[in-house]
Amino acid sequence: MALTRPLAALACVAACALGAGCASSPDADACSGIVDIGCDGGFVDDASGAWVSGPWAGPHPAYPGLTTVRVCHGLGRAPNSVEVYAAFSPTGNLAQQIGNVATVLPACGAEPGVTARHVLLRNGQAQDFYARFVFRP
């Protein structure tokens, strides 16, 4: 039994070396094919001062996998905080996202990623979602 873990670890390393599960990510170029998400439906929440892309109940815009989106916002300044909530349907239950499902890109080439008009966000997963975006001042 004591050898089980080391043997399992060795098997994983061998599989990785042979190319089973250690391939490079298909998310190779975050700055190509940027999709625009307009400001329509978004609003500044009076209570928090945050700009939100729509109500909790939706409908929420498509947030395709392995895609960078340029989310237009009406905050009037570059946000200090960005939150992404994702669902599997336009009016589905939302869950806050972290990691490569909700990566804020600081720039794409000469285009800044976070401005007073838009934020570049990358869904680095191969899963399509619908998203609610919250940008806080």
Brief rundown of the structure:
With 137 residues, this protein is mainly β. The chain contains one helix and twelve strands, in the order αββββββββββββ. It starts with a helix and ends with a strand.
Please characterize this protein's 3D structure:
The structure is a single chain. With 137 residues, the chain is mostly beta strands. Helices cover 10% and strands 32% of the residues. Strands 2, 3, 4, 6, 7 and 12 form a 6-stranded antiparallel β-sheet that branches. It has a single domain, classed as Sandwich (Immunoglobulin-like), CATH 2.60.40. The protein starts with a helix and ends with a strand.
**Helix coverage percent:** 10-25%
Radius of gyration: 19 Å
The CATH architecture: Sandwich
Distance between the termini: 55 Å
CATH topology label = Immunoglobulin-like
DSSP summary: helix tally:
1
